[in-house]
Write a structure and sequence with these properties.
Elements lengths: L1 H17 L7 H5 L9 H12 L13 H14 L2
Length: about 80
């Protein structure tokens, strides 16, 4: 179960930081996980990071500096 959570989180992080939608696909661009975004996907990311011990703050659904640092620590620890 922990490996599955790590795999899902890894995919979400990579898609959020690497995926770039083609012009005309505003919906895909607006769902990218990056600083300043507030969404249900960010809330889910925070919950996953918390369950893995990387996010210690309250769940807000806002991708700010605390979420960014947690993602960076997770990626560094997993060699991503």
């Amino acid at each position: 179960m922990k490996k599955l959570s790590i795999l899902i989180l890894s995919c979400a992080c990579m898609l959020g930081t690497v995926f770039s939608a083609a012009p005309g696909q505003a919906q895909a661009q607006s769902s990218a996980l990056k600083k300043g975004v507030q969404s249900e996907r960010v809330l889910e990311l925070q919950q996953q990071l918390h369950s893995l011990g990387y996010f210690k703050a309250g769940f807000t659904g806002y991708y700010g500096s605390l979420t960014s640092k947690a993602v960076t620590r997770f990626q560094r620890d997993k060699g991503l």
